[in-house]
Amino acid sequence: MGKPQRTVRLRFTVLYASLFLVSGIGLLVLTNLFTVTAPADFPEQLEVVRARQLLAGSLIALGVMLVVSVLLGRFVAGRVLRPLRTITAATRRITAENLHERLAVPGPADEVKHLADTIDDLLERLEASFAAQRRFVANASHELRTPLATMRASLDVAEAKPEPRLDHQLAERFRTELDRVDQLLEGLLALARVQHGAFADQGEVSLRDLVTEALRARETDIAAKDLKVERELGESRVHGSPALLSRLVANVLDNAIVHNERGGWIRVTTGDNGFEVETGGAVLDQADVDRLADPFRRLAADRTTSDGGSGLGLSIVAAIAEAHGRRLRLKARSDGGLRVTV
Predict the structure, then answer these.
(1) For residue 114, with 0-12 CB atoms within 10 Å meaning exposed, 13-18 middle and 19 or more buried, which class applies?
(2) Read out DSSP for 130-160?
(3) CATH 1.10.287.130-classified regions of the chain
(4) Given this structure, which CATH class describes domain 111-196?
(5) Which tens digits make up the pLDDT trace of 132-154?
(6) pTM here?
(7) Which member of 60, 236, 274, 326 has the lowest number of beta carbons within 10 Å of its beta carbon?
C-alpha cells in the first residue's frame, strides 16, 4: 500500500489546530503567571494542594483545547476549501463535448473567484481552439474531396465513352487535379510546420532583396495579366527564417497577381513599416476581408474559379508573421482593391 495522501485540508487542519493550541498554551501560561499568590500565613500544605489543582486544571484545559483545536481546524479548513472542491468537480465534468460550460463561481472578488474566472477564460480559449480545429478539418476534407470527385467523374466519363481523344483530356484533367491536391497538401504541411514547430535557420534578412527576387521570378505571370507594378523598396531588415520570410513574400505577391484584374496594378512597398502590397479592383466588404486569413477562406467570386489557389496562402502568411512577432493586416481600400501589410 502507498503512503497516505497529504491533502490540503489535512495541512490546513494541522495549521489551524497548531495556531489554536499555541494560543491556548499561551493563555494558560499567562493565567499561571498572573495567579494571585497566597498570603504569608497561608498553610504550606494547602498551597501545595492548590498548585496541584491548578496544574491538573491546566492540563485538562490543554487536552480539551487540543481536541477543540483539531475539530475547529478541520471545520474551518473545510469551509475555506469548499469553493475549491466545487471548482474541481465542475472542471472534471467539462470535456471536449461541453466546452461551452463555465464555472461561473459566485462570491466576492477574492483569490478563489479570480482562479475560477481564470479557468473560465481558459475554457473559452479552448472552446475557440477546438471550434477552429473542427472547421479546419471539415474544410480540409472538403477541399481534398473536390478534386478527388472531379477525377472520379472523369474516370466514369472515360469508361462510358472510351476514345483516344478523351484519354488525352483525361490525363490533362488528372494532372491538373493532382497538382491541386499537391498544392493543398504542401500548404497544409507548411501551415503545420509554422504553427507547431520552431525554425532553425535564423538570421538577418532583407525584405527588399526578397521582394526583388520574388518579383523577378514572377515576371511571366505579371506580363500574362498585363499588370503594372509600382515599387517603393526601402531597406527593411528582419531577424528570422529566410525560407519562411521568402514564403511569406511569395504568398502575398501570388495573392496579388492571381486575384488581380487584367490590366490592373500592384504597389509593393518595403521600409521601416515592414512589407506592404496594394492592388486595385472591385470594392470589397471589410467583414469578408477580415476573414481571409482563416484557412480555406476565399471571397465569393473566387469560389467558382479553378485558379483561386488552395485557400491557405494568407493563412500561412499570418502564421509566419506571428512566428516572427509581426501581424498580418488586411484592409479593403475605399476605392477598390486590397491592402496587405505585414
Answers:
(1) exposed
(2) HHHHHHHHHHHHHHHHHHHHHHHHHHHHHHH
(3) 111-196
(4) mainly alpha
(5) 677 666 666 666 776 777 777 77
(6) 0.56
(7) 60
